[in-house]
Design goal:
Elements (H helix, E strand, L loop, with lengths): L1 E5 L6 H10 L2 E4 L2 E4 L3 E5 L10 H13 L3 E3 L3 H10 L14 H13 L4 H13 L4 E3 L3 E4 L5 H10 L6 H7 L5 H11 L2 E3 L6 E2 L5 E2 L1 E3 L12 H4 L5 H4 L16 E4 L15 E3 L1 E2 L6 E2 L1 E3 L12 E2 L1
Parallel strand pairs: 1-4, 4-5, 7-12, 12-13
Antiparallel strand pairs: 1-16, 2-3, 6-7, 8-11, 9-10, 14-15, 16-17
The structure holds manganese (II) ion.
């Protein structure tokens, strides 16, 4: 079976439909399917930000329900489950309802305002059961970061569904559930030293920087080689202690999450990001799995 692996959609259903058509999927009885033996693998982050979140969810879930696609969980789906699940023990919800969290989730709340039953009965239960990673014969997929240590923990401990017990453990500071979910769905971060901070795309001041864990070890010289959006001055300094986590497996992993800019490129033959910021006027990107072992892998990108 060949797969078309698709990066973060964030409610951009029009771009999704265009991409599916470009990949040869046709709408039959309201569901996109391919005339040959092909399936889509969606990398998570279906909701928030974009103008057509409901439409995106219907397209993706319908394809999954009919065997035309598989989908994994993104941090936005995980956050949504926490946001909408009450914490009976401590009161409130498993995700806070303060400005930052509401702002990040606002488009979804707005677009589902008159469809609350659909959200509650159809999509939230579906989010809870989305796999956190997928492994095939010749490739793997995860939303943000594949670290064997965490994937093995999930294989042994995650029972295929986000239960309230799991969410309660996730909310305990530095619990194993917290570290595994944070790093698998949101990626690895490091604390900036010397009080450096920066402002992220939502204007939130942060002192943790996302690590480009997929960057091959030989390309790591300065801090900016492995850190995203880090302050200029700090980025120009040479990496001090250790070169950090890097992906060493021979099996290619696909991931999204990182809002890369420009046209898709292969930075590492074995770890390929497919999020090129469709929600910020970038591209919605797919990769055709038959190009995994191609010499020029960039021919596998469709966008
Ligand atoms: Mn994400």
């Amino acid at each position: 079976m060949n797969y078309d692996i698709i990066g973060d959609i964030h409610g951009h259903a029009d771009e999704l439909e265009k991409l599916l058509q470009k990949l040869g999927y046709n709408l039959l009885n309201g569901i996109y399917e391919h005339s040959e033996q092909r399936k889509v693998l969606f990398l998570g982050d279906y909701i928030d930000r974009g103008p057509k979140i409901r439409e995106t969810l219907h397209i993706v879930k319908n394809m999954c329900d009919t065997g035309n696609a598989e989908a994994i969980m993104g941090n936005h789906e995980f956050n949504a489950v926490c946001f909408h699940t009450t914490d009976k023990k401590n009161g409130g919800y498993y995700r806070k309802h303060t400005f930052t969290e509401i702002n990040q989730h606002f488009e979804t709340l707005k677009q589902f305002k008159d469809f609350s039953e659909e959200w509650k009965d159809l999509f939230l239960p579906w989010f809870k059961k989305l796999p956190l990673f997928i492994e095939k014969d010749n490739f793997r997929a995860v939303h943000a970061c594949w670290d064997d240590k965490h994937i093995n923990w999930l294989k042994n401990n995650f029972k295929g569904k986000l239960t309230n017990d799991f969410l309660a453990n996730f909310n305990k500071n530095k619990s194993i559930e917290n570290v595994v979910i944070e790093e698998t769905l949101k990626g690895k971060e490091i604390n900036l030293s010397n009080g450096h901070t920066f402002f992220d795309k939502d204007g939130v001041e942060r002192k943790e920087c996302r690590v480009k864990w997929w960057q091959p070890i030989e390309k790591r010289v300065k801090n900016s080689d492995i850190l995203m959006m880090c302050p200029l001055e700090y980025g120009n300094e040479f990496i001090e202690d250790g070169k950090g986590f890097h992906y060493t497996s021979n099996k290619t992993v696909f991931f999204g999450h990182y809002w890369l800019k420009g046209n898709p490129v292969v930075e590492n033959n074995k770890a390929i990001c497919l999020d090129y910021s469709v929600a910020k006027k970038g591209h919605l990107v797919a990769f055709k799995s038959e190009y995994i072992s191609a010499i020029n892998k960039e021919e596998g990108f469709i966008y």
